[in-house]
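Chain A, query sequence.
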Amino acid sequence: MNNFPLAGNTALVTGASRGIGLAIAQRLGQLGARIALCGRHQDTLEAACARLRAEAIDTLALTADVSRGDQVASLVEKTLARFGAIDFLVNNAGIGRFGPVQDFTETDWDTVLDTNLKGVFLVSRAVAPSMLSRGHGHIVNISSLAGKNSFAGGSLYCASKWGLLGLTYCMAEDLRAFGIRVTAICPGSVATEFGHPSSKNVQKMLQPHDVAHAVEMVVTAEPQSFISEVVMRPTQKP
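Chain A, predicted structure.
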């Protein structure tokens, strides 16, 4: 059995300085991939990078706001300059603002939708040409069960994640003929610092490494097929 099935490949992970993104980056690195970490804050990003390098994972830390097209272009250019290719893109960067819809401002709407939805479009669009030129690649979008269900206080977040699922499925149809796979992963509540107010039992919630395991599963699938969607729930309700 090959313990490093992703050796020689490069993964770009957004929102990778902590939580789900860091767990995904760590797992892909353990599988042999070179990792480009993207985050907005240099200090936490460098700390995450040091953590992976301590495991002998070839890592590049790049600060970028995925909602800014110019910063996304620079992010992808620097990753390609360092590693030569991007084989896996994990669009994980996301934010949440929760509360009654009537209490939100236009700025709140723009902030959530620009990060959670526009950001995925911008990064995927920037990465796609290099994948198309080589005839293979895999884009994994971290969505949420909030992209399938509604709940009080979730109007902005749910809108962004419902939109992300639509974007993911259409991207998959656009790119599958060129050897590029696109997958949506939809976890329930994950025990992170994300900030959704909750009285749930953290020990019963999904953990970041659970999502990382799902990403491992989809990117190591045989090349003649792809898993279009993964829905994740904890064994016990929190």
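Residues 143 and 186 are 5 Å apart (CA to CA). The mean pLDDT is 95.
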